[in-house]
Specification:
Layout: E1 2-3, E2 11-14, E3 21-24, E4 31-34, E5 41-44, H1 49-69, E6 73-77, E7 80-84, H2 86-95, H3 99-128, H4 135-151, H5 154-167, E8 173-176, H6 178-196
Parallel strand pairs: 1-4
Antiparallel strand pairs: 2-3, 4-5, 6-7, 6-8
Helix pairs in contact: 1-3, 1-6, 2-3, 3-4, 5-6
């Protein structure tokens, strides 16, 4: 990856670490600009950003279906076998009167991740088509996906399930279901999709994708 700093344009960027201000020209995909004082990356253009975002989002959406259809865990407690999906967990919590917890699990593990992935895929598709329509709407949509990412706690959910598997190992036979592997895949691909997208391409349709 190349690295350069240009002072020929009026785009001013300040280093978030040392505060040094630079005037940067447009970066080509695959290049980055770093601070000459402390070495902090100021701007980074991922090569093939749109293609990576679309691919990662699509992979996550494809895994999203088995992650919510197939059971997360299979538990055998004294001969009683039970298998539960994420949705069944939400329903059981609701039936037990834990309405707030059921709502939080539903939002953080089912609804918000789907909305974020759908938003990222839509953004990458419109950028790839070099669409000049709804630019402000798509900008706000990107901001919304960033906000949703803070609440779509799929990674925390997966860790909680794995901890439960370890803790219950002495009391019951607990086996990770096929849905857990898909769920982990959704977590990984969602993080990669979010990190790959370059929001500047929403406005600049003339840049190389």
């Amino acid at each position: 990856m190349g690295c350069y700093t240009s002072r020929l344009t009026a785009q001013l960027i300040a280093c978030t670490v040392c505060g040094h201000v630079y005037s940067l020209g447009p970066l080509k995909p695959g290049f980055a600009a770093e601070c000459s004082d402390c070495g902090t990356i100021l701007v980074k253009k991922t090569l093939g950003s749109v293609h990576l975002t679309a691919a990662f989002s699509l992979c996550a959406l494809l895994l999203y279906v088995p992650a919510n259809i197939f059971p997360i865990v299979r538990m055998n407690l004294y001969g009683a076998v039970s298998e539960n999906t994420v949705w069944e967990g939400c329903v059981r919590l609701y039936q037990d009167g834990d309405y707030i917890i059921a709502l939080v699990v539903f939002l953080a593990s089912i609804l918000l991740p789907f909305l974020k992935l759908s938003g990222l895929f839509f953004l990458s598709a419109t950028v790839r088509l070099r669409s000049k329509r709804w630019v402000k709407f798509r900008t706000e949509l990107h901001k919304l996906t960033e906000i949703l990412g803070r609440w779509a706690m799929l990674d925390v959910f997966v860790i909680a399930v794995l901890v439960a598997l370890v803790k219950l190992g002495k009391l019951a036979t607990v086996v990770a279901g096929s849905g857990l592997l898909a769920f982990a895949g959704v977590v990984i691909f969602t993080l990669l999709a979010s990190a790959s997208f370059d929001p500047e391409q929403i406005w600049n349709t003339e840049t190389e994708l």
